[in-house]
Amino acid sequence: MPWVRFVLDSDQNRAAFREAGSSFMDTVSRIPPDVLDDPGLGVWSVRELIGHTCRALLTVEQYAGREAGVPGRMTGPADYFCEVLRDRSIHGAVAERAADAAAALGDDPASAVAGIVDGLSRLVDALPDDHSMGTPWGEMRLADYLPTRTFELVVHTLDLAGAVGRVGPVPEPALSVALWLATEIAARSGRAENLLMALAGRAPLPPNLLGLGPDS
Question: Which member of 24, 66, 150, 200 has the lowest number of beta carbons within 10 Å of its beta carbon?
């Protein structure tokens, strides 16, 4: 029996993306400059984690204006993550791009992030839901790509807040979309029962349930 695919309401989808971007921007604005080179996540410093998270926004612009890297069309955001995770060699390239993105932030990461969030929010507002996104793993609609960006923004904003000891609340719409997508990824990966039993208090949560490493 195939998994039922739930479709996000367009307004909810876009609002969650905007609020995730605003939460990331606000978190970065509160990070003291003297901790930017402290450990952030895995091999990344705080600055590199900020740079990597910026790429969750910048790929929207990148993919909105190009053809897909391979033929075919993905039908949902969970499909995107499952395709990405098939290539285990991607993690080294992701780590390297994070270092480049961190350097591009310059001496004032907070201002750089604010500019990126503002620019990408304007771009998304100008594009229709069915705008074609040419990802390296296949074509997909903007409406299906945005939840993947909301997920990345929410998870890495929480990573950042934890790294600098300034954990704050994530906006509920963005957190709800991230949790929904996590459930979808678990279902597509054959781990739905593990997740359900853990959430119901029947079993411990397996480590790295979704298969996402610290450099994802």
Answer: 200
pTM: 0.90
**CATH number for the domain whose boundaries are 10-199:** 1.20.120.450
Whether the per-residue pLDDT at 49 is higher than 70: the answer is yes
Measured CA to CA, the distance from residue 54 to residue 82 in angstroms comes to: 21
Residue type, 117: V
Q: What is d(CA 170, CA 23) in angstroms, rounded to the nearest whole number?
A: 7
The mean pLDDT of 170-184, rounded to a whole number, is: 91
Confidence check: pLDDT of 116 > 90: yes
Listed residue (127, 117, 126, 122) closest to 149, CA to CA: 117
* Burial bucket for residue 176 (CB in 10 Å: 0-12, 13-18, 19+): middle
- Yes or no: say if 3 and 140 are a contact pair by the CB < 8 Å rule: no
Other C-beta atoms closer than 10 Å to the C-beta of 180 total 18
Question: Cβ distance 36 to 103 under 8 Å?
Answer: no
Mean confidence (pLDDT) of the chain: 87
Cβ contacts of 175 within 8 Å, gap of 6 or more: 154
